[in-house]
Structure formats: C-alpha cells, structure tokens
Amino acid sequence: MRKLFVLLPLVLLFQISCNEKVKEEVNETIAEVKEAVIVHEEYAKSEPTTPEETEFYEPKVPVVSPAVGGKAPSDAIVLFDGSSLDAWVHTEDSSAAKWHLNKDGSMTVADKTGNIRTKEDFGDIQLHIEWRSPLPVQLDNQNRANSGVFLNGIYEIQVLDNNDNDTYVNGQVGSIYKQGPPLAMASVPTGEWNVYDIIYHAPEFNDDGGKTKSATVTVLHNGVLIQDHTEIKGNTPYVGWPKNTVHGKGPLMLQDHGDDSRVSYRNIWVREL
Ligand code: MG
Known about the structure:
The chain contains one helix and 15 strands. The chain has one domain: Jelly Rolls (Sandwich). The protein has one helix spanning 2-36, and strands spanning 77-80, 88-90, 100-101, 106-108, 116-118, 125-132, 147-151, 155-159, 193-201, 204-205, 211-213, 215-221, 224-232, 253-254, 264-272.
C-alpha cells in the first residue's frame, strides 16, 4: 500500500509532462498552419448584404486595341512590322542589321552575319514574335533551323525545327536553353509560321551583386502553354552551368546560329509591364 502512495504521484507527474509535450507539439502545428493560411484583409469586414458593396469603378482600366489580324495592340512598341530593320543592330558591333528583309513582311537570318539586338532596352515585357523554319529541311539535331529569342539579351528561349528531329529536351524548341524543357512540343509543320507569346519578368539584384529574385518566364507556343512562370536560374550557355551577373534593362536579341539556319521572323512587338 505504501508503495502505491509513492508510485501514484510519479505516474501522474509523468503523464503531465507527456501531456505538456504533446500540447507543445500541437500548438506548434497550429502556429505553422496559421502562418500558411492566406488572409485577404479586404474581405475581413462584415459580410456585404447588397451587390453594390462588392462593385468598384476606380481606377479605370486603360483601353487597348486588341492584337488581331496581325496588328500589334495600340500600346505596344513595334519592333518589326516588315517595313524596315531600323529597330535592330548587330550585337557585336552595333552596326545596322544586315539580315534579309523580305517582300512578304518578314526578315531572315543572313548566315554568319551575327546576332541582332534591339536598339531599345527593356525590363519586364510581354513579347509577341512569329518565326518560321525554312524548307527544304537540312541538317539535323541542333543544326536544323536553330535560332533563339534572348530575353534581356541574356536568356535564350530556343527556336528550333524539332519536327521529326530529336534533340536533348532542355535544348528543344521552347526550352529555356539547357535549363528548362518545355511542357509540350507545339510546333506547326516546317515552313509554316509559329507564334511565341512570352511574359518575362527580369531578375532583381541587391547592392552587393547578389540575386534576390530570379527572372521568370511564361511562354505560349501557338496558343499552348509551354513555360508556366518558370524560374530562369541564370544565363543559358552552350557549355557550363547558368551564371548570374548584375544587369538592368537590356535588349531583345535574335540568334544567328551560324549554320545557314535561315530562320525567318515577323510581327514582333512588346508591351512593357
Ligand atoms: Mg538557339
């Protein structure tokens, strides 16, 4: 009986300490869950009872003419409409762009003349650009109609004729070159016009040169989502890992892959975001 008197408080103490530990763990979990919950403060007020209470009229939304029939929206900066290459220079020496200006309103890579870039610099943009692989097809893998759209002049969204032409998936058409394969291969038949609609947000850097926010890119290829707000981890070199160097706004650049790829472009415009 005396033993029982000694043991009972010990058992109770043990139980209390176990309960405290469980309580602590439960409280921690509740705190984590609370932290993860998104609270929309604007909807924390008392519940509306009329439709008017949830309707607002200011600020007004700008009116923009739509991008239909090959026309750029009214607030877009037109970079190429088929009339001239005036918005473009060669990347290497800033000389006037020597790519071919065609009568059908397109331009074509003039082999081994080098990449071209816009004279104007951009940060966050919505970009519309159309491109076409040439017929007849020639060469294969990365050498078949290889070009590229370089965002900020640094980050390549691959342009390639991948129809019956396999290559590494992180270098195929619509990839962030050597980084991010596309979600789908949505090319039209070779010789027809492809459309890229791209939304690009530039990276951010701190004063010490550290990257505080990666660039992101969303790409629609012929209306099909192929990059979904994908993180761009750095530049897109042929050899080596992606690297980051501090930069601000930059040009849009188009690639001359140097192997007579003869890719054509048309109808290029951007909207600054
Ligand atoms: Mg390329």
